[in-house]
Specification:
alpha+beta, ten-stranded mixed beta barrel, 25% strand, globular
């Protein structure tokens, strides 16, 4: 019964896929985000659900959607203030991006797009966003693709565990996108935010990384797909969060300076 309900999903009617984002979508997204399980208690997909990660990647591959869709752990990094959503933007230094609580009263479809979607039995809802236009042509999403993803998640009781991600996962000349690590930052008394760091500038390497995201590899989907995105543990303070208690305001240059000083990234 649940699977039959999922099969009627139409990507052109889903906000952030075929339907242009509007103000009510922002309100729903913020409320939804605050109901998601915190990443600290969410199951580790690489340990408990890698067979499902593989199966979902095979669905993405089947429909030729591997350049723009991926699988991601469904989680939050703490509650958002009322009236805000999580919006990713470029830091402008060292390939970093940051995602912060942001008030969006009127979404600009040309300069903002949805990046993560949660599936329910009868709906698909975006809950995180990024600056810039969407990386895909809405009209080119196969009608059955979204329904097949939803059907699988519902059938295996994964709607509260796995999300669908939108991004640029294209492989130039067969070269995979560089892996990244997501770091939580607490800047003084400000609202905490996250920073995504390319692993090439990550000082402590891969040992502390917890996989959170998987895309379709250029060579196809193996039995144990390699992860592309991760949650980073800050080893020197035995926590997943970088704390800055100084008085300097948050700027791209100051963020990089603090991450270098705390031995998170290379200078």
């Amino acid at each position: 019964m649940a699977a039959a309900t999922v099969q009627v999903l139409n990507p052109m009617a889903i906000a952030g896929l075929g339907k242009v984002l509007d103000a009510p979508d922002m309100k729903v997204a913020g409320l939804l985000y605050n109901t998601l399980p915190n990443i600290r208690v969410q199951p580790r997909l690489q340990d408990q659900h890698i067979v499902h990660v593989k199966a979902l990647l095979e669905i993405i591959q089947k429909y030729g959607m591997g350049d723009v869709f991926a699988i991601h752990s469904l989680h939050s990094h703490g509650a958002l203030p009322v009236g805000t959503i999580r919006l990713e933007s470029n830091v402008g230094l060292k390939g970093l991006t940051w995602t912060k609580a942001t008030v969006i009263e009127k979404p600009d479809a040309d300069n903002m797009h949805a990046t993560f979607f949660k599936f329910n039995e009868d709906s698909v809802i975006p809950f995180e966003f990024a600056e810039g236009p969407s990386p895909f042509d809405m009209a080119k999403i196969p009608a059955q693709f979204i329904s097949d993803i939803g059907t699988y998640l519902v059938k295996h009781n994964l709607t509260n565990v796995i999300a669908l991600q939108v991004g640029n996962f294209s492989k130039s000349d067969g070269v995979e996108p560089e892996p990244t690590a997501e770091i939580e930052v607490q800047w003084g008394q400000d609202m905490p935010f996250t920073v995504v760091v390319p692993t090439s500038v990550l000082k402590q390497g891969f040992d502390s990384l917890i996989p959170t995201g998987w895309h379709v590899p250029a060579t196809g989907v193996p039995d144990k797909p390699p992860s592309g995105e991760h949650w980073n543990k800050v080893l020197n303070v035995n926590t997943h969060k970088v704390h800055y208690s100084g008085i300097e305001p948050l700027t791209p240059a100051m963020l990089v300076k603090v991450l270098v000083e705390q031995e998170i990234i290379v200078d």
